[in-house]
Amino acid sequence: QVQLVESGGGLVQAGGSLKLSCAGPGVIFKRRAMAWFRQAPGKEREFVAAINWSGGSAHYADSVLGRFTVSRDTANHIVYLQMNSLNPEDTAVYHCAGDRIEFRSPVTLSREEYEYWGQGTQVTVSS
Length: 127
Hints:
By secondary structure, the protein is mainly beta. Helix content is about 5%, strand content about 50%. It is built from 1 helix and 11 strands. It has one helix spanning about 25-30, and strands at about 5, 10-15, 20-25, 30-40, 45-50, 60, 70-75, 80-85, 90-100, 115, 120-125. The strands form 2 sheets. Strands 2, 4, 5, 6, 9, 10 and 11 form a 7-stranded mixed beta sheet that branches. Strands 1-3-8-7 form a 4-stranded antiparallel beta sheet, with no helix packed on it.
């Protein structure tokens, strides 16, 4: 089974920054949009950000717009999530995901349209 691996999570104070990374096989990264979702305790997994297969466009949830930036290094099969101005409401397990359809653009925000998932990395923001 295709596996994506996230890294970069941790504990940070409010107002701080973290950069998450997600690595996986090239067959996923080269042709598919990649997204970040997050899940806080007791809540549904929610969309955070996504970038299309070429890296030419991205979409963000309103709650992170202007604070988070998604990017990709397709040649090295990595997608990033730069998170700035973090607040306690950003505390969650962050998962990266690969689109089930190749070359989709614009990106989809629907969790059901992402077929490939990582185990997640914990981000905790203290007040």
